[in-house]
Amino acid sequence: MCDVNGPFKLCTCSEKIDKKKPYWVLKTKKVEGEETMVLGEFSQPNSIFTPIVRRNILRRLNSVKSIFDFEYNPKEKDLLKLCGEYDEYYCEYINGKWMWLDNFDYSGKNDCKFQNKTKGYIEGSKSKLMELLDEYEKLTKITLYKDDEYFHFPPKKNFEEKLFFSKRTNKELIQFIEEEIDRIK
């Protein structure tokens, strides 16, 4: 199964979406409706991985010309929702590029009416980071990405504590997890 952290392509489908697989929804041509203010409790993004995934998603959306499998030129205020294996991510096309939206911002914009809604699956290979997280989980029976309902996990080991409270790049994170896996084996 692919993830949105690595290279991916947004492919359309005519069938009903299986939401157990990574998928996307694009809403274009806003026609009416005011954005609403959304109040309430929302899940918080994973503090370790969301900054890395965010950077990778925006880099890919803003640099790859054929990210979709159909002819598409983004327009101001288009909304894109990406649903990966572990999380949902939201973007809006503003001033000529895709920008990140927090989940409560997306909810307020999502209430507006749009002329077009296109959906499909996210296709691509699993990123090295997610492969390592899977391997770590199999070795230790501890998940690092999936969290409880409030999207945080209490560190159970010294490694997890170092991981949780550090700011690392994608490359540094991969190396750090690889070293821990090698140590465990």
Notes on the protein architecture:
The chain contains five helices and six strands. It is an alpha+beta fold and 185 residues long. The chain has two domains: 9-123, no CATH class; 128-184, no CATH class. It has a six-stranded antiparallel sheet. A hairpin with a 4-residue loop joins strand 3 and strand 4 (88-94). 24% of the residues are buried.
Please describe the topology of this protein.
Blueprint: E1 9-12, E2 23-32, H1 50-63, E3 79-83, E4 88-94, E5 97-101, H2 103-110, E6 113-123, H3 128-140, H4 158-164, H5 170-184
Antiparallel strand pairs: 1-6, 2-3, 2-6, 3-4, 4-5
Q: What order do the SSEs take from the amino end to the carboxyl end, as H and E? A: EEHEEEHEHHH
Broad structural category: alpha+beta
Measured as a percent range, the helix fraction is 25-40%
Total individual domains: 2
Low-confidence stretches: 34-45, 147-151
Count of helical stretches: 5
Principal-axis shape equals elongated
Give the percentage of residues in beta strands.
15-25%
End-to-end CA span:
25 Å
Largest β sheet strand count, sense and barrel closure: 6 strands, antiparallel
Rg (CA only): 18 Å
Mean pLDDT: 76
Task: Please give the number of β-strands.
Answer: 6
For the largest sheet, list the strands in their spatial order: 1-6-2-3-4-5
